[in-house]
UniProtKB/TrEMBL annotation:
Pfam families linked: CBS (PF00571), MgtE_N (PF03448), SH3_actinomycetes (PF26205)
Keyword Signal among UniProt keywords: no
PANTHER family: MAGNESIUM TRANSPORTER MGTE
Species the sequence originates in: Flaviflexus salsibiostraticola
GO molecular function: magnesium ion transmembrane transporter activity
Cited SMART domains: MgtE_N
SUPFAM superfamilies: CBS-domain pair, MgtE N-terminal domain-like
Domain named CBS: residues: 347-405
One GO CC term, this protein: membrane
Keywords attached to this entry: CBS domain
Name of the protein in its database record: Magnesium transporter
PROSITE patterns: CBS
Length: 418
């Protein structure tokens, strides 16, 4: 009896070597479409340590059963790079619209089954589909031989992003960004379009300049402006700065006026200065605010961990550029005080603020010297303009391609052809 496995259900399955040590988990299934005969299943994309995805030929798989994949123990840890002849089942085929060869209607692919015909000879055998409600099968879910449907290899029109959205729903933005990097352009745009503004903004902040510019440029102008509105102002400014000037101007006109003004102010500074690095939306409170108020502000999900550790205290107004900067309250200190304590009673006035013209080196040195995660930036009148956080400094100190730089490749390898 042949082993039949549904590709969608393989996602997240643990991959183990012969002695039971975990190698990684399944991310996707790689298939090759042929002119004649069913598609061949040639390998798995597996996620190993450090969220790195590598190729595991099915010739190196000895068993797929009981919720686990067993390998021969040899894994090529070179990062997976999809070839033009290869198709990823989960990323590219699920949710694809196909037609029945007998002309009885169309359906959407829910999953694909692969079967081992002979040792290490895996083929796509069946499609699990959901038919259209107005067709002869009336919205049924069916398992049909793969030869009974047309459009698996080419039917990208109308392809939804339902399966991919379900897979990434609980991933962190940095991990969703990794998924985005591996998607073809049309699928990446489909997923980006389906994400809500806040989620897409977080993902774009984790992508490289070229990738996020491509995505934002493909979005409808109003949708792109909405996404920029909910991004941290410094991230939005970095992204707008990479766009063609004409496109950037159109987006700034469509943005919320207050958000656009913040972005314009940041664009006025060199990107490698405190002014170019800062966000205009740190936690800012007055000296008469209580510790309870400060802790509630730090709990907001829109505040990054690096910024949540510091409350900046100023005179009114409390939106940048604020009234006169007074000092900071460290979250650790606030946690030691009664909730009713006023921030003015526990303020730290020993943290010297940055000037917006201070260079990257000065900013990094100041953060390291005082073991801080954020520093205030003030103008000549000591009005608070914003704050520089350590994560933004690291982003600029690391090489431009740090998100996609290969890890050490010293593990055992097998060739792509098995």
């Amino acid at each position: 009896m042949r082993t039949r496995v549904f590709a969608g259900r393989l996602a997240g399955t643990g991959v183990f070597d012969p002695i039971g040590d975990r190698v990684g988990k399944v991310h996707d299934v790689v298939v090759l479409f042929r002119l004649v005969g069913p598609p061949l299943a040639v390998g798995l994309v597996i996620e190993v340590s450090g969220k790195k995805r590598v190729f595991l030929p099915l010739t190196r798989v000895t068993s797929i059963a009981n919720g686990q994949v067993i390998t021969t123990g040899l894994v090529n840890i070179r990062r997976f790079s999809q070839r033009s002849t290869e198709t990823l089942v989960i990323s590219e085929i699920l949710d694809r619209r196909v037609s029945f060869k007998d002309g009885s209607g169309s359906a959407v692919v829910i999953d694909l089954a692969i079967e081992e015909y002979r040792r290490a000879d895996w083929r796509v055998s069946h499609a699990y589909v959901r038919t259209d409600r107005d067709g002869p099968h009336g919205g049924e879910s069916l398992i049909v031989p793969v030869g009974d449907v047309i459009g698996l290899a080419t039917g990208k029109e109308g392809q939804a992003a339902t399966a991919l959205l379900a897979r990434i729903a609980h991933l962190k933005p940095a991990d969703v960004a990794e998924v985005f990097r591996e998607l073809p352009g049309d699928r990446r745009l489909a997923v980006a379009t389906a994400l809500n503004d806040e989620r897409l903004a977080d993902v774009l902040s984790e992508l490289g300049d070229e990738e996020r510019v491509a995505i934002l440029s493909d979005l409808d102008l109003d949708r792109a402006a909405d996404v920029l509105d909910v991004m941290q102002p410094d991230d939005a400014a970095d992204l707008v700065a990479e766009l063609p000037s004409s496109h950037a101007a159109l987006l700034l006109e469509r943005m919320d006026p207050e958000e656009a003004e913040d972005v314009r102010r940041l664009l006025a500074y060199d990107e490698r200065t405190a002014g170019g690095l800062m966000t205009t939306e740190p936690i800012i409170l007055g000296p008469d605010a209580t510790v309870a108020h400060a802790l509630a502000s730090a709990r907001r999900t829109s505040v990054t961990p690096a910024l949540a550790a510091t409350i900046f205290v100023t005179r009114p107004p409390l939106e940048s550029p604020t009234g006169r900067y007074l000092g900071v309250v460290h979250l650790q200190r606030a946690l030691r005080e009664p909730p009713s304590t006023l921030l003015g009673q526990i303020i730290d006035t020993d943290i010297d603020p940055l000037s917006p013209e201070d260079g990257m080196g000065s900013v990094a040195k100041r953060l390291a010297t005082y073991n801080l995660t954020a520093l205030p930036v003030v103008d000549d009148s000591r009005l608070l303009l914003g704050a520089v956080s350590i994560d933004d400094v690291l982003d600029h100190l690391l090489p431009d391609d740090w998100r996609t730089t290969e890890d050490d490749e010293t593990d055992m390898r097998v060739e792509r052809n098995g």
